[in-house]
Each structure stands twice: as structure tokens, then as C-alpha cells.
Amino acid sequence: MTGLLQYVEQNIQTRRLLKRGQAVLGGVSGGLDSMTLLQALHKLSSRNRWQLTVAHFNHRHWCQPNSVTVTDNAVPAITGVAKGNGTLHLDLAGMPGLTYVLQATTNLISSGGWLPLATNVPGTNGFWQFSDTVTNNPQRFYRLELAP
Predict the structure, then answer these.
(1) Sorting pLDDT into bands at 50, 70 and 90, what band is 70?
(2) What pTM was estimated for this model as a whole?
(3) How far is Cα 107 from Cα 98, in angstroms, rounded to an integer?
(4) Domain residues of the chain, as ranges?
């Protein structure tokens, strides 16, 4: 665990800011400081069983309606799959500004068999697509992870 991650976790525990299993709403503006905090909360969420939701705050429009957007897609997800003409099309979702890695393997039993296929930072809507040719792979498994 990195020094910053330890620092954040210790402060959360010492100040009793969050409990295990609690729903957490992380407010971010897209700046480096808030995205760093979001990444730390995301990395700590599985260990603490937090249900992380993200709210994006637009500083330029703070007094206007709809200046805050709440989304549940900080945790990466494969949201759709379609196959056609020897190509598999994946719909992927994540938090804008964070970097995600799409990985694939042909064997779920062997550890360490996951290979990176693509690294991407989603656009402002948090969605993107990936296409993979499936002609040489009778069986292939995919996962999407937040980049370290």
C-alpha cells in the first residue's frame, strides 16, 4: 500500500469518518486533488466494503440547476456485449478522468493469465467501446480494472 493510501486510511479510521459497509458519496470536480481522493476511496472500498458513488461538481456553474451530477460508475463495468462478423464488441463504463485497463484471458483457473488489451480514460459521459477479433479464441474472458 502506498504512503498516501495509508495516510488516507489512517485518517478515515482515526477521525471515524466512515464505517465498514457504509455507502460513501465522493464529490469530485475533475481536478487532480479530487481525482486522487476518488482513486484512494476506490482502492479502499473493497477492503472496507464501502458502496462508492461519485458526484461530479462543476465549479463554473455552481449556482445553476444541474451543476452536480451523481453517478455510480466509478467502479468499472462491462455494460454490454455484441458479436458480429468475427468481432466481439464490448461496451465499457467508468469514471471520466480515471484510467482503466481492459484485460483478457482464456483460462480462469491459471493465475497470472490476464493480459492487457487496452488502456483508456473514458470521455465525459464515462462510456467507451472496445472491439476484439474472436477468430483465434474459442473461449475468452474479459475484465475491466482501474489502472494502478
Answers:
(1) low
(2) 0.51
(3) 28
(4) 3-71, 77-146
